[in-house]
Amino acid sequence: MPTPFDVAIIGAGPAGSSAAYFLARAGFKVLLLDKATFPRDKTCGDGLIPRALPILAEMGILDAVMPRGWKLDKLEVSSPSGRTVQFSIPPLPNAPNYAVVIPPLLHDNKLLQQAIAAGADFRGGVHVRGLLTDANGVSVQVEQGSTTETIRATLAVVATGASTALLSSIGIPAPKPNIVAARAYFEDIQSLPPHFQFRFDGVVLPGYGWVFPTSPTSANIGAGFIRTGKREHHQSTQTAFNNFIQSPTMKTLLSGAEQVGALKSFPIRTDFATARTFAERVLLVGEAAGLVNPLTGDGIDFALESGKIAAQHIGHMLRLGDVSASQMQTYDTMLRQRYQNLFRFSGQVSRFSLNRRALDVLVPLAAVRPRLPEVLVNILLGAQPAPENMSFLRIVKGVAARL
Ligand SMILES: Cc1cc2nc3c(=O)[nH]c(=O)nc-3n(C[C@H](O)[C@H](O)[C@H](O)COP(=O)(O)OP(=O)(O)OC[C@H]3O[C@@H](n4cnc5c(N)ncnc54)[C@H](O)[C@@H]3O)c2cc1C
User: Fold this and answer.
1) Residue ranges of the domains in the chain?
2) CA-closest residue to ligand 1 atom 3
3) Per-residue model confidence as pLDDT tens digits over 208-242
4) 84 partner at 20 to 30 Å CA-CA among 137, 170, 218, 308?
């Protein structure tokens, strides 16, 4: 018996909505499920980096999103001892040389609406408890209030972000999110610099603090740290955040400002380099595949892109009538070809540099040798490929040798 849906997609964040949009647009029968009702808020730094913007244009929502966002083209990094370096987003081959700060509350719902307009069926407030695969398809076990039901589809896409509960039902050991971060919104900030700030003064290392302006006087401000298992990292995100905003520079910046709404924290998975990306009849997209950059924390761009890549590959498999393990493996190969070097390199930079000693050397070095941040930013934003073999330390030594 044919399954009622070609594809069931679990999670309607950017990754799930992108997959749903591209599949529905190609004429497939798509069911998109989310435990949240939309519009839903997602705890985030709200930065849409340049590589996220072309795909929003392709999905037809960039023009609607841009007027509600705040465009910035400069980034400042501060070392633990307060030295700073500032640089501009370079010209990029396939994206504009600016990023946009916009709360997901605004763009995530637009992405979902585009998927629905393209023909996807959406059900919100539906918790998917398990996925069971067999020779003919996937049984999606859903729970809505006190009722449960099973929905059949030929294939499934898991787009559940950092929530890993569903993964064990498809035989993937649930990975522990490796970063935790918290953010709050502030208004009435006097003298807010008009650029992104990554700050390492007053934060738990390895970790970071950020100030992402949402207007000339308001900002999304947050702090996160990498879980290393050491005792000092067992502190709460609340404490890490409070320590960050009490640091001298932040105290001055926020004097007279007002926090609007509660502090919210959320885990982040950045483990794509070693993560599983598929199981029998199931593809993983976005943060469910660990696709958040381990250095910069951006994940919306990868969520959108991987949703599209999965949709295209699923379309190919369904047209061929071949959903074999080797076809599933091909999806993984496509992701690895595109992202593996970038994630390996970003992870290496993060491990090497997110400590006091390294940052206090690297930030002043970057200030006098602009080639260093230029190379790094070009790689992180996709303007040049991540080196396959060259280590970050070699790049730093090369730049330092020319001093
Ligand atoms: C504090 C913080 C700051 C960040 N800052 C940035 C930033 O500035 N820029 C950036 O690009 N990225 C940032 N990120 C990362 C970014 O938010 C995520 O990478 C992105 O949202 C991932 O998209 P996704 O679609 O994969 O998952 P999500 O957006 O997390 O969507 C997953 C969806 O799945 C649903 N779901 C989960 N489990 C189930 C289930 N069992 N049944 C039904 N539905 C389910 C959830 O309700 C949710 O709607 C940040 C993350 C955090 C935590």
Assistant:
1) 5-68+103-176+270-345, 179-268, 356-401
2) 44
3) 999 999 999 999 999 999 988 775 566 789 999 99
4) 218
